[in-house]
């Protein structure tokens, strides 16, 4: 039996899904179909019109399974996420919200015959659901990975296909009644026959068969059905129970006859089918799969001239003069009434004239006179002509007995029979006969190919007339492929065929070629049509070409226009490969228009075939030199090929074409583009803005050269990325500043080095004009470290690097001042800060960072809190702790080690923002650190506090620190920096001489809980008048902010006169002098200081006036919206790359700023009286005090102490001395 030929052309397709079709089901009313897809939707279709009635949405994952109840009232669908939805069968509206039915995807669903229960199968279990309540019935049934569930027609059994076995359950009792192996692996699909007497199962790739099971014994019936080569996804049985369809991932739907298990048809998909079902009437098969559509298929029902000797009549037939041939043969018959041969020959002539009655009459007469080969052949031909196929077969069978043992005649007889059967529309039988003959008799191959060509031309012509274009093309292609060079066909052995059936061999093959071209063209396959045309022109000779010249020119013109139009459609759909092929076809067919070349260039640009697009663009310019289009395409091609200089030059030409265009409309196109000079200015503005927050000079990590900003810009402009940016931006309708900023940022970003100076380091003068990579610099101390830093920065993807050793001209005071004041900003805006730990060896354990000398240096505080990204390196330039975190600020272990070592909280390390708020804590960070130049301990804090001050090396630490603290108090009013112990500064006695005075943690006094405050307020109200409380509140409310002027501190405070100072024995023999101090309104206290105080008491007074003061802090008012004044708040976008230096440096507030007017609306919004009493309670708590001694000029000086002075009032009801004191 010959091999089945797959059918590739369905009757029609249903197309609306955007992804693969996984499930399909038809409704009992025959009018509708529902499908489920990986696009997460279901579609409800009208089967008659092919229109989608409703797109059903609701699933959050791909739809894997669906079923329709037997009455068509309910649709159930399951998805890959385990979701289940019930839908109304008529309207397609959802009956339920998505139900989380399974943890894994739902592979199969099926309704019980009465529609009251739905079975769902998943890789986790099987469940049964009530279709009234949509609640699960009972517990899940655990039976393994479920691939398919199917109720028997009676509903008495439920078959379950799992990975390993087939299980049969009684759904009523949930009892497993049978379990058996089934397939070798994976029982993939199931189907019951309508009478329930058979169950079919489909296997996986390892066993791609269908097996038939007898439910009475659960034994396999017959042999497995073989044919598929991969997973059998679905099995369907027609309503009559006689036919079976199966869909497999081998891209085939196979059609079987159940009675003999024979494969009787194959339908081939372009991608594997997932599902198949029969129409309700069983006349069609519907299959869907990975091609995103549902295909509908029809179910089919199931030589030497020994015949015509060379005579005058023969020649008449050969020339087509049938009337003469008939006349001559009639004369022969009149001459001899028993001339059975002439009767047979005249029958042939009558058949040529389609006079079938006369032909049959002559044939019957011939065999009645004398049975012969010729007589029965003529009878067979005539009977076929009249449609009497069965009788014709008998005639040809009888003819075969006259062949004797002549193979050539036998072959000819079979070919004649085949052709006659074609005339009787028995095409399949004829084709089968020819193929069997060719297989059995290689000697007959030439004739078989000849007849096969004829048969295919006939079939193709019929299909073409019925608009079955793909089928027609297949037949004509088969005809062309079956043919051989024409000269080989013109053989005397087969000349009888041309005489019997009026064949023109040359015209036959030319017709096959032409109709093949037409079939492809009519089917919309213009490229195939062109391919067929070119094949034809190569195959035929010059005379044949001349004979079809008119047809050829018309075909080329028509095909060229369609190719161009289809190319436009493909280009619009971004199908660039197809567009290129179509435009190329149009050009091959002599269509050389500007539009076609331009569009092919666009398609090639779409495919990024830059160099291939360039000739087409150049062709457009040649065809229309005045148009800008060719130059636009040429620019795009050159740009894509990274020939940016040429691209920009071409773009300039394009602009000139637009500028000089004769029509205004074209000139207006010019407004869509920028001149390169405009883009260059825009890029330069972004560069300048970026460099405002970058170091003044950096090292090129590739060349090793030191570059200033202009050198950086020049290097950037020479790079391909700059030219690409310029070339691409000119074509845009806007400047696309975001992309410009991104490219500039990426090219100008730099890495910073944080390290500890070790002896002599490379200076600017050492490397200026040289590459740090040059061997002649090997003798320069520290060069190895500098080179390794540059290489590490380059390895991290950064073009530029900065080191404080060689990137600052320390001989230039202006540059030095700028660098010191900008360094925090530079570190913050760096893309990466590399921290080099020269004393941490490879493979060090956690803790080495904490003990590194790097952690003792003053400048390194800002160097690790300012940057966004830092990486610590050991002395061999490997990552510390081998921590591969992209940013060590995100490494919990490293940040914790930093916190433990420095006392700096993680939040400050990760997201620090400059501020003068909380100055005491920041000063504490630096209190244990050292710098080579003593002034640097203050200068290194400029950026942390967000101040800019002159740099004056030689002023000493106390003046440098004094200026910094003076600026903080003057601008922010923050006096936490006055909380120190140690030695006073010569700059101002209220300030320390050294940063080490901040080593002790900030003085932290306990705060009262709210309930205790409330209790104390209640007590005060009984003993203190409201006026007293309001008076204190008002005075303090209107105090001016602390301020500095000419090194004098104007400090708002509450003063307490000291009445007695007596020296007492100190418990610490190494301590300085300790004095007992009594002050009006305060509890007695002890003060330790290195200063010698004049002792006095009431009986021994002194002229020197000493007071204890409580510095006034506005926060004690506890105003509801009390916050740091806006000018001291950190910029909200501090962490963004778009910050400017002004984001950090805010103008100072007036030193005489009156805080009393900051909250005018609050006077009526809150209970001032209550706040006044609460203030008294807070004033009654311990406080940090200063001891001040009045000078002869009336001002005061602070007496430094070794420990915090903690004071406490005796009685808050006593009057208070509230004033501003000037301190030297």
From TrEMBL:
Annotated segments matching region Disordered: 1137-1156
Domain Heterokaryon incompatibility, residue spans: 750-840
WD repeats: 14-55, 56-97, 99-124, 225-266, 266-307
Keyword Signal part of the UniProt annotation: no
UniProt keywords, alphabetically: Repeat, WD repeat
Tagged with keyword Repeat: yes
Pfam families: HET, WD40
InterPro entries, A to Z: HET, Quinoprotein_ADH-like_sf, TPR-like_helical_dom_sf, WD40/YVTN_repeat-like_dom_sf, WD40_repeat_CS, WD40_rpt
Coiled coil: none
Gene3D superfamilies named among the record's database cross-references: Tetratricopeptide repeat domain, YVTN repeat-like/Quinoprotein amine dehydrogenase
PROSITE patterns reported for this sequence: WD_REPEATS_1, WD_REPEATS_2, WD_REPEATS_REGION
Xref: PANTHER family: HET DOMAIN-CONTAINING PROTEIN (PTHR10622:SF10)
Protein name as annotated: Heterokaryon incompatibility domain-containing protein
The organism of origin for this protein: Suillus luteus UH-Slu-Lm8-n1
Record lineage: Eukaryota, Fungi, Dikarya, Basidiomycota, Agaricomycotina
